[in-house]
Amino acid sequence: MTESKHLGIFWGTTALYLTETSETSPETTFHVPFQKSSKSDSKKSSIDPMKVEFVRNLKSALAENNISSSSVNLSLPTKDIIFRSFTIPWMQRFEVNNVVEFEVTKYIPFSLDELAFSFQPITITENSIKRIRIIFVAIKNDALRKYMRALEAASLDVNIIEPAASSLIRALSFKDLIPKDETIALIEKGDVGRIIIIDNNVPQFVREFYLSSTLIDQGADEPDHAVKKLTNEVRISLNYFNRQNEELNVKKIFLLTSDKEENLTKDLEQFLDIPVTEIALDSVLENMSEVGIDMINAYGASISSKISLPASFNLSKPKAEIKKTSKPVVKRPINIKSLIKTAVICIPLIILSLSLSIYLKKTLINKVTTLSQKLQSFKDQDTDFLERKELILKTKLTYFQNTRTQSNTALFLLLIPELLPKGAWIQNIDIVYDDSSMFEDPAIKKKNPKLVNIEIKPTLVLTLDGYAYSENKNNQFQLINTFLGQLKKSKEFSNAFQDISLETTNAQKLSEYDVTFFKIVCTKKPNEYNKKIK
User: Is the separation of the CB atoms in 135 and 204 below 8 Å?
Assistant: First the structure.
């Protein structure tokens, strides 16, 4: 393979799909099936890509198809990809990285050290306020190493690693099959359904769902049930996306399928009230109907170096490091003339500074004498005693200034039912105004009371304990996230609290129902003013 040729690989469910392109034209497409694990190894996945036989078959397939390059672009399946979208306040680009690494821990149950990740900041406007939407994509290091070990065993060197959603968008956009400047939904129909919501060629939301069921397996109204199931899953996805992204609106739906689905297209349009356009796989790559969408993902990965997208999610890219460069010391000859000029200027300045110091010293002595005369009988009092008394009086003054005379409890109780999504309820509400810190003597708390005096206002803490229930347990966490998002979007809550966060979630059992318990804590942090005592 020459330098103008590129090899793209997609890791499918049952096989590895490979496409070699020259510039952007596909020249060779083939796939290498995985081997099924033995019955004695049934605890592991039914597909074992690390078997020696698979590696041998992969090497043979590369040789048979005259693939000589060892550098490849890898497209990874959605099932292993963590995809999150959230907003942060607008800031300069150089500040975004640290903020994202802190904020994303609220949305994923893993440490960033466990992940290979990439993100794309997009400037948006919400309610006339400029903010930044973060599209965060990651994969667990353990899962990524599994893929890498198999390819390295076949002597392949991975250049770019990206999610399948990016590969698919690139291929369809390059073929002008989807608009580049609209918000659309792309639906993949198969045993496993998939929806990708795209805005200006950037994936905003990715969700995978199963379309097979016991009813279909038994042959009961298979076409009607499949349409109903797909329509329902798409509606759920669109409703969730619209609640999280009020500024975006899906205008068109594109259905990617290997067979003509005229009836399905009409049914989707009727139930969702959104125009639906069918995209045949053969319009992307010839003779792809039998192979399916997986080969298109491989093709999209193969042209990544030729066709760029507005957002690049390269999971193989190392984190940028700021390197400090040391400059060599340059020895310069002594300039006598410059030395004389410097002395002429500096000597008068030194004399002037000494004179000024003497003057300031005399002024200070006069000031001390004046203060001593004013203190009279208090002159011999212990300084620590006086300062401690001053701090105690200031603390009491702060207490009276910040005494709570009203509460927003009624407003919170009125708003919470309106913000709760269907399927979630509140079990316990706890509101605490913590005034305890104002009763403490600062002089007792601090070894040296001369350094600082801190005035502390009461801390307001609102704790919401509740449960979320959905027939699909996977949707229960989405209900909790929806409620959390509604609290953060509420003007009343955002004005009342500086921090609204999900403290804990865990699966529980209520009677015979599986529910998810959650605790959300809303906090108004204390205002602190440091005042140095002169």
Answer: yes
What gap in Å lies between CA 18 and CA 296, rounded to an integer?
10
pLDDT at 108 over 50: yes
- Measuring CA to CA, how many Å separate 530 from each of 452, 453, 454, 498, 527? 6, 6, 5, 20, 10
Report phi then psi at 497, rounded to 5.
-130, 140
Q: Could you report the per-residue pLDDT of 49-95, keeping only the tens digit for each?
A: 556 788 888 889 999 998 877 789 999 999 999 999 888 898 888 88
Class of domain 401-531: alpha beta
pTM: 0.57
Closest to 120 (Cα-Cα) out of 135, 139, 98: 135
Integer Cα distance of 115 and 141 in angstroms:
5
Q: Domain-by-domain residue ranges, the chain?
A: 1-175+286-322, 177-283, 401-531
- Nearest one of 202, 195, 206, 167 to 181, comparing CA atoms: 202
Q: How far apart are CA 95 and CA 93, in angstroms?
A: 5
CA angle in degrees (0–180, nearest 5) for 376-381-384? 135
For residue 499, what are the β-bridge partners?
A: 523
